[in-house]
Amino acid sequence: MQAAPGTPLTAAPLTTGPARKRRVAVLAGVAAFVLAADITTKAIVVAHLRPDQPVHLLGNIFELWLTRNPGAAFSVGTGETAVFTVIAFGVIVYIARTARKLYSTGWAIALGLLLGGAAGNLGDRIFRAPGLFRGDVVDWIGVVPRYYPIFNLADSAIVCGGILTVILAMRGYHLDGTRSAGERGVNERGVNERGVNERGVNEHGAGERGAGEHGANEHGAGERAVNEHGAAEHGELPGGRETGRDAADPAERAEQ
Question: Is 139 among the residues known to form the active site?
């Protein structure tokens, strides 16, 4: 079936304002959950654990061990506290600006994890000793701490968000919800490979059993529809009139 006159042949945008708001809500929800969990666990750890008394849950494999970290995640760069504070601010500002063009749920989760993790550790640097923007981050999770740095939930969220970001980028997913050309599913134009092409016509004729190039179904526009020459496959014209063998001459009908 052909489009009505004046109807654009390009595909309608797949992204809308409400869709973007939902993705931003996912980002904010993930970030808020990570931040709340990080703040709560740090408060409990500081109130009940002592730095020199680790709690062994699985021997030397998994421990709860309170430490103060002036560096970045996993105790990296312990002498650059102010630098990492500035970096955390930059990450938060970048994610907030990026949210304006966010239509991908996967990217919303990834950015939410990064935002919540960065905000959690930034709160320690602002409000904890030894001073403003120079505070030590509270770490307390030890997984084989003899060989692996002690960390916290914010660090875990940052790592998980980074891994998810790499996966999304490698698979060709973009922030606006589209996918790179050559991948199955949605291409760079945001149009499904089996949906509408650049001319507004499905690659398989506007649907596997939809309209063909001349507005007719590939199988005759339906089992009892009209073919290309206006004659029905089963001897019916539009409007229920008979044709072909079923439309006998009136004289022959009278003789019969």
Answer: yes
Phi-psi region of 144 (alpha: psi -120 to 50; beta: other; left: phi over 0): left
Q: Are residues 160 and 36 in the same domain?
A: yes
Q: Let me know if 249 is a catalytic residue.
A: no
Residues of the domain holding 236: 219-250
**CA 113, CA 27: separation in Å to the nearest integer?**
8
Distance separating alpha carbons of residues 233 and 82, to the nearest angstrom: 80
Identify the residue whose tokens are 């490979």.
Answer: 193
Catalytic one among 155, 176, 246, 249? 155
Per-residue pLDDT of the chain (256 residues; tens, 9 = 90+): 455 555 444 344 444 678 889 999 999 999 999 999 999 999 999 999 999 899 999 988 999 999 998 876 555 666 677 788 888 999 999 999 999 889 999 999 999 999 999 999 999 999 999 888 888 999 999 999 888 889 999 999 999 999 999 999 999 999 999 998 755 544 434 444 444 444 444 444 444 444 444 444 444 444 444 344 444 444 444 444 444 444 445 444 444 4
The DSSP call for residue 101 is G
- The total of structural domains in the chain comes to 2
The amino acid present at 153, given as its one-letter code, is L
What is the pTM assigned to this prediction?
0.65
d(CA 90, CA 110): 17
Residue 201 lies inside a defined structural domain of this protein: no
The HSE-up count of residue 209 (CA atoms within 13 Å, CB side) is: 3
Considering the candidates 124, 136, 139, 249, report the single residue annotated as catalytic.
Answer: 139
